[in-house]
Write a structure and sequence with these properties.
Layout lengths: L11 E5 L18 H11 L3 E2 L9 H10 L3 E2 L3 E4 L6 H20 L9 E6 L20 H20 L3 E4 L10 H10 L6 E5 H6 L4 H8 L3 E6 L1 E2 L1 H4 L9 H7 L2 E2 L10 H8 L7 E5 L11 H15 L2
Parallel strand pairs: 1-2, 1-11, 2-3, 4-5, 5-6, 6-7, 7-8, 8-11
Antiparallel strand pairs: 9-10
Helix pairs in contact: 1-11, 7-10
Amino acid sequence: MREQTIPRPEGIHLGITPTCWTNDDFPLIGNDIPMEQCLSEIALAGFDGCSIGHNFTPDVDALTAAMHLRGLSVSEPWVSTYFTVPDGAERTARDLLKVLEFLKEFNAGDPSVKTTTIGVAEFGHSVHLQSLSLRSNKPELTEEQWADLCHGLDKLGEITASQGFTLAYHPHMGTGVQSEQDVDRLMAQTNPRHVSLLLDTGHLTWAGADVAAVIERHRDRIAHVHLKNVRGSVRADRTLAAGSFREYIEAGVFTVPGDSAGEVDFDTLLKLLRPGDAYRGWLVVEAEQDPHGGRPPLYHAQIARDYLTRVLG
């Protein structure tokens, strides 16, 4: 059993995403790693839960049993939104209803921790899955698309809130909402009662944001946190200047908290977040990496958990 040096702050749950084992954006990366190995190593590293990976079983009963067997809960269900493209709102609504139904079935089994947040990001016009340069092909949403996105998120958040969940928006590289200015605009144009912020330290850092300033400005809107690190040497690699999202991932641009190669100052960011006080909820480690490109995923998971043990318990 992992020794805790200090008591865990009240109301804080620690998670990790399966993308450390098998990549949801690019399923062939790590696709040979079975769900059972991923879940067992997440539990072995000492985490409370995880998101649902693309290669997890779609059988809710089997998935619930596999996760509960290991004492794990769902850290964040996910809905990709498509409000900025034709007929995207209808697809988004259908996907949300599927997720809400899944959560109802999962939570009926009395998990150790009940998730309260649903993560979303707008993938209409996204280039992050394409073989295009991230630097020169960032989508720039029109005024009409911004209005459609914010209106759609408000409606989605209203539905989500009626079911007892919080909608949290995730800025993402290669999408129309990735920069600090994009986040500010989204927060200004959406209803704070229905749309919150999923703070992803890695995507914001890579986009050039002052993450500390984002926390200070939007502290009351932060409902969920991804603790993702960025290898500055990879981000600044001139041979990747015209690289796609996948090329950066395979080069190792992301890593975990506690990795000395990372440039994110988690000590400072966590002090600003004030876990257990100003912030209560999930702190989820995320680092899309090629599991066969270096150290195994469990190694990185343990580095991250050891770091969080030192600073949070």
